[in-house]
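R.M. (postdoc): so does anyone remember the format we settled on? I'll just put the structure tokens first.
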């Protein structure tokens, strides 16, 4: 591979490296909201089913 001379190297804006993309490391807020709703909904469902079992045992 031949050596590159300074005349061969790009000059100006093309020489600058491309800016890296911003990558967010934390999940979106909507995900937290959905998980919270699912957790609350499953606990409410479990409480309702437990109440049905308690009522059924008392009869």
């Amino acid at each position: 591979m031949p050596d590159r001379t300074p005349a061969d190297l790009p000059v100006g804006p093309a020489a600058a490296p491309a800016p890296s993309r911003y990558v967010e490391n934390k999940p979106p807020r909507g995900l937290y909201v959905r998980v919270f709703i699912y957790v609350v909904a499953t606990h409410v469902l479990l409480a309702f089913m437990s109440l049905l079992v308690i009522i059924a045992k008392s009869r």
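R.M.: ...and that's the designed sequence above, right after the tokens. Also worth knowing: Helices lie at 29-58. Residues 29-58 form the longest helix (30 residues).
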